[in-house]
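Incident log, structure service

09:12 report received: a user says their structure output differs between two submissions of the same chain.
09:20 pulled the input from the user's history:
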Amino acid sequence: MKKYGLIGYPLEHSYSKDFFNQKFNSENIDAEYVNFEIENINDLKDILRENPSLCGLNVTLPYKMKVIPLLDGITDNARNIGAVNVIKFKRGLFGKLHLEGHNSDITGFKKSIEPLLNETHRRALILGTGGASKAIYHGLKQLGITSVFVSRKPKEFCIAYDEITQNTMENYTVIVNTTPLGMYPKTDACPDIPYEHLTPGHILYDLLYNPDETLFMKKGKEKGAVVKNGLEMLLLQAYVSWEIWNS
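09:34 re-ran on a clean worker, output below:
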């Protein structure tokens, strides 16, 4: 039996395991998908040693950037983004394992948000600066949208949450949450932005999908904004992951 899995911490919120195991069952694929909840990215070495039947991995918070130094190579797409969420296992001479990093987040995100966009959506705020935010930035760029990162701490090429003004909200009509704020079980949290300045012309896209409607989304809906969670993005990038593993 082949084995695939997900590395990250924590993983209690993730639907990937259920998605893939349902896929394997419905399509009679002799495989299983396992969650590997690790507190340190260096524990990946133990996972590889203890699971010789592994054929591929997904990567989620907080390891999409931290995993890169442990890989044997990454695709140009993943290198440009600066983050990896899919690891392809390749066997070389004498069965030597070669780990190749890919990024399927960008494809899933673009396909998910594109139907919501119109000509008024030209600028975006990306809340958070972790691995997922990099794919979002490049995805929006490919869709013709200029983005600014929002960070809790002072960083180059970012603005702070307390710098978001009414004028900012009027000019940046796409807001994407890439932080874990609001994720189950801490569902009473949300990014600290001035929600009172939202309008029906705004899109609030949350990469989280557990719960279905986060507090970030609820606050947007109250102002008439278009809101969407990250479940479709998860499913779309999962299909791409499967194609990568089996190509």
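09:41 both user submissions now match this output. Likely a transient worker issue. Closing.
09:42 reviewer note: The first strand starts at residue 2 and ends at 8. Helices lie at 16-26, 44-50, 76-81, 105-113, 131-142, 166-171, 215-222, 231-245.
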